[in-house]
Write a sequence for this structure.
């Protein structure tokens, strides 16, 4: 797509919007970066876009905050949406109705990038699987790890060659706005309720996830979780060759656990390793490993590279991350447990009586299954954020009464410290997003670690 001298609106000035603006300016587009947040500093946003690329000093670039003037919408060749901006806003609907293409940052990057894409989505496990697959692929070829993991695809798209591979973590928000995006290998790890405040229904959320394989053909691969009813059914919706993974049974033409061994059996059976050789714990992580192995093997990575990398992998920050043991109490940072299903995995990984910090931004989630998963492990639930009363009410309905409502993150942490005894664990696994109290789950996890290390 030739965008030289074409007027393009980038909607949203976060990390994705900034990176998309840079790419567009590099290919000669006339860029308007728009954000409805009037508390931002337009000059600072402009400097953020232009400072990283000195060659962008003589470009047509404008930042608009607040209301989007009607004249700006005229003669637009393209709108590029940042993933955090809802695609059903009235102003977006108006532009769409006017025939203006509405893309996301992923579609923009894919249009200008070279090389293959290996893309991963799912409600939980995306970051672990993406990070592990990225480590495997780096041992095999020139690899970029991009997407929802915090590295915008648009930031590196123009640097890619035909020999490059992009390993991409894909959120439902990013998948909503693809058109021709086509990964060589895709994976859907699992589907449980999440982001219903954005997608409104489970059907809408599932439809967004299915976008990952919409353009794949019989020449491509789609890796699916056999033990998730929703993802298992996706095999009927894709033209790609399906490789299933399962932690509970042998799957023909797939990858599975047998007597603790991870076995890749698409043609001949190949034992990758025993789960005791892994440095990441829990069945959910065994599934993440199987998905990453299946994707790498399907792409043609030799098994010796896969085996060596998998056994050396130590996991990702903020996901059931051991922080320290203080006075006999083990502290775990699972800030990436931003929905109930992810937080259930955090509880299941605990092998001590646990004091749990939960709550945060309300994504219209239901917390019953999370509370039920406490299974006698949780001694006390300390709640924070917008969801604290909702979760407290749910817990008490289910007969769990050891709850405390805290007014701040620091207060919640102090309550846990005062009530923890030697042999206990303190776990931050909120089952909610961090927005409202923190910029993101990373900042929340870093704060937890800071407080632990002060003890």
């Amino acid at each position: 797509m030739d965008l030289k001298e074409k007027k393009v609106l980038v909607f949203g000035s976060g990390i994705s919007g900034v990176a998309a603006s840079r790419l567009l300016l590099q290919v000669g587009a006339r860029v308007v970066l728009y954000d409805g947040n009037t508390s931002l500093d337009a000059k600072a946003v402009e400097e953020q876009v232009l400072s990283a690329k000195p060659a962008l000093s003589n470009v047509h670039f404008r930042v608009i905050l607040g209301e989007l003037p009607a004249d700006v919408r005229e003669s637009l060749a393209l709108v590029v949406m940042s993933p955090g901006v809802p695609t059903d806003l009235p102003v977006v609907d108006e532009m769409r109705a006017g025939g203006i293409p509405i893309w996301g940052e992923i579609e923009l990057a894919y249009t200008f990038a070279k090389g293959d894409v290996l893309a991963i989505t799912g409600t939980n496990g995306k970051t672990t699987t993406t990070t592990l697959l990225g480590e495997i692929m780096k041992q095999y070829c020139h690899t970029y790890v991009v997407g929802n993991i915090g590295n915008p695809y648009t930031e590196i798209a123009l640097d890619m060659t035909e020999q490059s591979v992009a390993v991409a973590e894909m959120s439902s928000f990013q998948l909503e706005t693809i058109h021709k995006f086509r990964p060589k290998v895709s994976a859907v790890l699992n589907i449980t309720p999440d982001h219903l405040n954005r997608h409104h229904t489970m059907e809408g959320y599932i439809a967004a996830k299915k976008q990952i394989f919409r353009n794949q053909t019989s020449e491509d691969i789609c890796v699916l979780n056999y033990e998730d009813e929703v993802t298992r059914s996706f095999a009927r919706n894709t033209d790609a060759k399906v490789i299933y993974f399962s932690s509970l049974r042998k799957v023909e033409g797939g990858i599975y656990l047998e007597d603790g061994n991870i076995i890749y059996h698409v043609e001949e059976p190949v034992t990758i390793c025993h789960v005791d050789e892994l440095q990441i714990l829990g069945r959910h992580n065994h599934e993440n490993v199987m998905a990453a192995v299946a994707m790498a093997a399907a792409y043609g990575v030799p098994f010796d590279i896969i085996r060596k990398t998998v056994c050396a992998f130590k996991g990702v920050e903020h996901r059931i991350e051991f922080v320290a043991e203080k006075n006999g109490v083990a502290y775990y940072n699972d800030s990436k447990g931003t929905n109930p299903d992810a937080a259930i995995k955090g509880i299941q990984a605990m092998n001590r009586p646990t004091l749990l910090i939960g709550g945060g931004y309300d994504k219209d989630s239901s917390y019953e299954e999370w509370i039920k998963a406490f299974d006698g492990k949780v001694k006390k639930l300390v709640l924070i954020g917008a969801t604290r009363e909702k979760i407290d009410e749910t817990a008490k309905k289910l007969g769990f009464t050891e709850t405390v409502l805290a007014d701040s993150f620091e207060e919640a942490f102090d309550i846990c410290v005062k009530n923890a005894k030697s042999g206990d664990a303190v776990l931050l696994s909120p089952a909610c997003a961090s927005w409202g109290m923190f910029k993101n789950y990373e900042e929340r996890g870093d704060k937890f670690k800071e407080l632990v290390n002060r003890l």
About this structure: The mean pLDDT is 93.
